[in-house]
Write a structure and sequence with these properties.
Number of helices of chain A: 11
CATH class of the largest domain in chain A: Alpha Beta
Strand content of chain C: under 5%
Number of strands of chain C: 2
Structural class of chain A: alpha/beta
Helix content of chain A: 25-40%
Distance between the termini of chain C: 46 Å
Largest sheet of chain C: 2 strands, antiparallel
Number of domains of chain A: 2
Largest interface: B-C, 41 and 46 residues
Strand content of chain A: 15-25%
Chains: A alpha/beta (440), B mainly alpha (326), C mainly alpha (293)
Shape of chain C: globular
Structural class of chain C: mainly alpha
Shape of chain A: globular
CATH topology of the largest domain in chain A: Rossmann fold
CATH architecture of the largest domain in chain A: 3-Layer(aba) Sandwich
CATH superfamily of the largest domain in chain A: Response regulator
Order of helices and strands of chain C: HHHHEEHHHHHHH
Distance between the termini of chain A: 40 Å
Oligomer: heterotrimer
Radius of gyration of chain C: 19 Å
Largest sheet of chain A: 8 strands, mixed
Helix content of chain C: over 70%
Strand order of the largest sheet of chain A: 2-1-3-4-5-13-12-11
Radius of gyration of chain A: 22 Å
């Protein structure tokens, strides 16, 4: 219940401030007017100030709820900020959130609901790949622009449709291949991979084994773990003793067990360990049993701990979302953010804003939607700054996918310290499709 | 004409009017309900077909399966893989999906019908779990949990020279309705046939049916195969209409859901599964628009409903008011 | 790693799984055997046990052993109380109708999961083990606490067996299980026995969860797997047989771990599942069951 109460109050606020929206007024003037007499300007509302409706498909329940909660906080923060600055092309954002239960069937239903009941302008926000893929056909057939924040390779693979975009976060293929050069030259060339035995894990397996081979290395053993597994020790003997680097990526509630059991198994006689932070998103590095991670390495999409060279944009982003310098919630130090993923919501919202403003989008007609899609496809780069705090991105309009910098961090004193930042080119690959050739 | 025969005719008349009425109502609904309900009802009707199929085994034969996701999944993947990897086209894929379910149900029936009662419940669950894991294991073809989409030419079905656009909401709605109506009519015919009466007799007392000379194993195998085939048909239709195939639909959740739909609507009634599916769907849908804690609301409503109508909605109605309901 | 040590590790891990599974399943077996109802919410009682354990240890922070001991007592009691209330309010009212109770316990599952999500949150939270030591074998290291879990579970199972076979309460339960009508005729308060059985069944699940939570963390969706595995164990072992339940728990706990020595884990799980299913096809009454029911 707590969730919904809060959400509704946010929506209400949005409505009140929408009424205060005056076309042509600058953001500062608007804020001043709102402060002086919010009631007085209410009558001046014009027809064209109708809000831009954004359907927010969010994992409030189900296996993705730990991510969904932070996606929601980040999204609310960005929407508030955009609205305070005058909205999108002078129109406020009205955010309508619907829970997809982290389920592809419900996800598809929610897209239908957004399109026909809420009549939103765009749908945005989904994380888990199966929800994205389950919803994408409905979005395409209902001609609903669908911006996902999922890091899956599904969009870039060219297998979805022209209405689906991933402009706010780099996809897993790019993340994985950009890690290989550094791993090969700093940690070792004989790699054993442990990954969940489903599509996300298979992506890691396929793209990394190929990438490490190009570096003169080799994936000497592959250990897929059934996703229903809650205990992992019994699989560790499959790790060959010649392993130089252990590459791990796990998702779901059992990740902490995995890392702990790894520690119990190896003790101090261990290979170099490199993992994807997905294994520890939303988990406190000071949790019991994790001391063993000291000195190991992680991929981070966006450094959880504020670094020595922290940018102003990162400071700004942290304070607005409500995250402290250690990646925990400002209101509860035990509540750890999903820092390497949720920035994608923030950045995607700014891309949506930019695309709508560039396309001259007015209402949900096919003509305007076509213009919006084409305007998004025409985008090339997003510069680092408050709108893109994670860093610069290069957007490939043909495959609807962004490519950004990645980070490799070492656990030092129970904190993550960035030791390497990849170039965007490290993660580039040959495009596998071209959405722009599809009909709208 | 005898009194009994007259009563029987009157009942048949009532059954035709009431069930035909429900189907006609669903047909008429598309012209009045809003766009959203038009879309969601399409999905509900496909899922209701799944429930109707489940009810043949559970409601009329008395075998509680916790593994029907296996059959739904067989239809879903049979159709999906045939369409995307063997290029058989939408109509061909539909047939492949149905055939996959039929063969699987028949072959599995030969093995698992050695068990009954709770053992049957657990054996079906374990085979379904193995099926789910197989989908993950063959991730190269199935893309595991992520699944895959059907698009392009696969959104067009060619049948006897006609071509149907599967992306078109009106076409989809009426295809789903046709599927559900066919299964409901088939189910009534089955229940009223001699075979159906034997199935009910097996449900009530298998030992006695065997003593009376019926080969109960054969009848149960028939019921399981028919039930599995209908569920696979629903699965194949789901893949083709909603253009997505994924492992969630083969998971244990989709074995428990048809059980819940059937129990909620009324076990052993033809329309009960339809009512149960409708109720459950819109309960979640409506409750979720008021609170994100909607499963709490759903749970409470289910409790109230089941205490008030322990035999399910139509089941309790049949007990108390309308005894002729099939 | 060499074959011998590898097998030894699989054996150790299988023992831990089996111990916790046996405890959870004995709880379900009681409910299933005595009351003849399919309790879909059994896994949620397991989950609640873990969540309450986290709550206890976080209240008494700084002294993990003390917090854990408190959890061992408080969590099962709370879960038992919740189970008893739901039994009185709902199952009794349904007159233990087998179909109605399925719907009711599914509803209970939804309610408990949602309440856990609201009250506890979506994160997997760790609970510190009461004692931490690492046993170093020549080939690998192993968490000593896991062996403590095995010992504790064995002790609890023995206690349950003692209560069932050597006490008056146990006698009442067994009489009710054997034949409800006759039990009623002998003036056994069947109604009260049901309430107690339902509560005790839930408490066994809860205590199993408290034991496992320092290894696996508490999460609001953690109840699904123990539910399915418990059902399998209870039926494979033979309904009503504690011995059968324990043997089946060992078979199931060990099988996929040991098979996975020879092949990839998912394939091992598939084969283990099919093999165990075939046991039931071959012996529908279960390993130690008397007759098919």
């Amino acid at each position: 219940m707590g969730h919904s109460g809060k959400d509704r109050s946010v929506t209400k606020q949005a409505k009140v401030s929408r009424r205060t929206a005056l076309q042509g007024l600058g953001a500062a003037g608007l804020a001043a007017a709102a402060q002086v007499a919010p009631g007085a300007v209410r009558y001046a509302q014009a027809q064209t100030s109708a809000p831009i409706k954004i359907g927010f498909q969010v994992h409030r329940t189900g296996i993705g709820a730990a991510y969904g909660r932070w996606y929601e906080r980040t999204t609310n923060a960005a929407v508030k900020l955009i609205n305070e600055a005058g909205g999108i092309g002078g129109r406020k954002i009205e955010l309508i959130a619907e829970d997809d239960g982290t389920d592809p069937k419900r996800g598809a239903e929610v897209v239908e609901k957004f399109a026909t009941q809420h009549k939103v302008d765009v749908v945005f926000g989904t994380l888990f790949s199966h929800v994205v893929i389950g919803s994408a056909p409905r979005a395409g057939e209902l001609k609903m622009p669908y911006f996902v924040v999922s890091e899956g390779h599904h969009v870039a693979s060219g297998k979805l449709n022209r209405y689906v975009f991933q402009p706010g976060i780099t996809d897993v293929k790019s993340q994985v291949i950009s890690m290989a050069p550094w791993i090969a030259s700093n940690l070792g060339k004989k790699v054993t991979m442990i990954y969940p035995d489903f599509a996300f894990g298979h992506d890691h397996r396929n793209y990394f084994s190929e990438a490490i081979k190009k570096q003169g290395g080799e994936a000497i053993a592959l250990i897929p773990i059934p996703p229903t597994e809650r205990s992992f020790t019994r699989y560790f003997p499959k790790i060959p003793s010649s392993t130089e680097v252990l590459y791990h990526v796990m998702v779901g509630p059992a990740v902490l067990t995995f890392v702990k059991e790894l520690g119990e198994h190896f003790g101090s006689k261990r290979p170099k360990i490199f993992g994807f932070i997905d294994s520890l998103e939303a988990v406190n590095l000071k949790s019991p049993g994790l001391d063993f991670l000291e000195g190991t390495y992680f991929w981070e999409g966006y450094p959880r701990y504020a670094q020595a060279n922290q940018t102003d944009a990162d400071k700004f982003y942290r304070s607005k979302v409500g995250v402290d310098d250690t990646g925990a919630s400002l209101s509860d130090p035990k509540d750890i953010a999903t820092y390497s993923h949720m920035f994608g919501c923030w950045e995607t919202l700014y891309v949506i804003k930019q695309a709508i403003e560039a396309s001259g989008y007015k209402s949900a007609t096919l003509k305007d939607k076509t213009a919006l899609i084409e305007a998004t496809e025409a985008m090339k780069t997003f510069e680092e700054g408050k709108e893109h705090p994670q860093g610069k991105k290069i957007f490939n309009g043909k495959i609807h996918q962004s490519f950004g910098h990645q980070n490799i961090s070492q656990v030092t004193g129970s904190k993550l310290k960035v030791v390497h930042r990849t170039s965007i080119e490290d993660g580039m690959y040959e495009a596998e499709g071209d959405y722009t050739k599809m009909s709208l | 004409m005898s009194v009994r025969a007259t009563a029987a005719r009157r009942n048949l008349h009532r059954i035709i009017v009431s069930h035909g009425g429900v189907i006609a109502l669903l047909f008429a609904a598309q012209f009045v309900i809003g766009a959203y309900y038009h879309l969601s009802l399409t999905r509900v009707m496909v899922l209701a077909t799944f429930a109707v199929g489940y009810n043949i085994l559970f409601g009329y034969t008395g075998l509680l399966s916790l593994g029907h996701a296996l059959f739904f999944g067989a239809g879903l993947y049979g159709a999906g893989i045939a369409a995307t990897q063997f290029g058989v086209g939408a109509s061909g894929a539909f047939v492949v999906g149905i055939a996959a379910g039929l063969l699987l149900a028949f072959a599995l029936g030969l093995i698992i019908l050695r068990t009954a009662g709770v053992a049957f419940m657990i054996v079906t669950m374990m085979f379904a779990q193995a099926g789910y894991l197989l989908v993950l294991y063959f991730g190269t073809y199935t893309r595991g949990d992520e699944g895959f989409v059907l698009k392009g030419a696969l959104r067009e079905a060619h049948l006897f020279g006609f071509s149907l656009n599967l992306a078109d909401p009106v076409t989809r709605y009426n295809l789903a309705l046709f599927l559900l109506a066919a299964c409901v009519v088939g189910c009534i015919a089955l229940v009223r046939s001699p075979v159906g009466r034997v199935l009910v007799a097996i449900r009530e007392n298998e030992e006695r049916s065997r003593m009376l000379g019926y080969n109960t194993f054969r009848y149960k195998l028939f019921a399981l195969t028919l039930s599995g085939t209908i569920c696979a048909t629903a699965g194949a239709a789901y893949a083709l209409l909603f253009a997505y195939v994924g492992a969630t639909f083969a998971s244990i959740e989709y074995s428990i859901l048809p059980l819940l739909w059937v129990l909620l609507g009324g076990i052993g009634t033809v329309l009960g599964p339809v009512v149960g599916t409708l109720l459950m769907f819109y309960l979640v849908d409506v409750a979720s628009s008021y609170t994100s804690a909607y499963m709490l609301v759903v749970g409470i409503v289910l409790l109230i409903l089941i205490v008030w109508a322990p035999g399910g909605l139509l089941g309790t109605l049949r007990e108390r008011k309308i005894g002729w309901l099939p | 790693m060499d074959f011998g040590p590898y097998l030894f590790l699989a054996f150790l891990e299988g023992t831990v799984t089996a111990a916790v599974l046996a405890l959870t399943a004995v709880g379900l077996s009681l409910v299933f055997g005595v009351m003849r109802i399919v309790n879909v919410a059994h896994g949620e009682f397991f989950m609640l046990g873990a969540v309450f354990a986290w709550w206890c240890t976080s209240l008494i922070s700084g002294y993990p052993a003390l917090g854990f001991l408190a959890a061992l007592i408080v969590a099962p009691l709370l879960v038992g109380a919740i189970a008893m209330v739901s039994e009185r309010l709902i199952l009794k009212r349904l007159n233990y109708n087998p179909e109605g109770t399925i719907v009711a316990t599914i509803a209970l599952l939804y309610i408990i999961q949602q309440l856990a999500l609201i009250g506890y949150g979506p994160d997997a939270r760790p609970v510190e083990a009461p004692i931490t030591f690492r046993i170093v074998f020549p080939w690998f290291g192993y968490a000593g606490y896991k062996l403590v879990v095995v010992a504790a579970a064995a002790a609890l199972l023995l206690a349950t067996w003692f209560v069932l076979t050597r006490t008056r309460l146990g006698l009442l339960m067994r009489a009710t299980q054997y034949d409800r009508e006759t039990a009623l005729a002998f003036a056994i308060p069947v109604d009260r026995v049901y309430a107690i059985v339902f509560a005790v069944g839930a408490m066994l699940a809860a205590v199993a969860a408290v034991l496992i939570v320092p290894i696996q963390q508490a999460h609001y969706l953690m109840g699904n797997d123990p539910l399915l595995l418990s059902f399998i164990v209870v039926i494979i072992g033979g309904l009503g047989s504690i011995k059968g339940t324990v043997v089946a728990a060992i078979v199931i706990g060990m099988s996929d771990g040991i098979i996975s020595v020879f092949m990839t884990p998912t394939l091992a799980k598939i084969i283990a599942t099919l093999l165990v299913a075939m046991v039931l096809v071959w012996r529908p009454q279960g390993l130690f069951g008397q007759t098919a029911r």
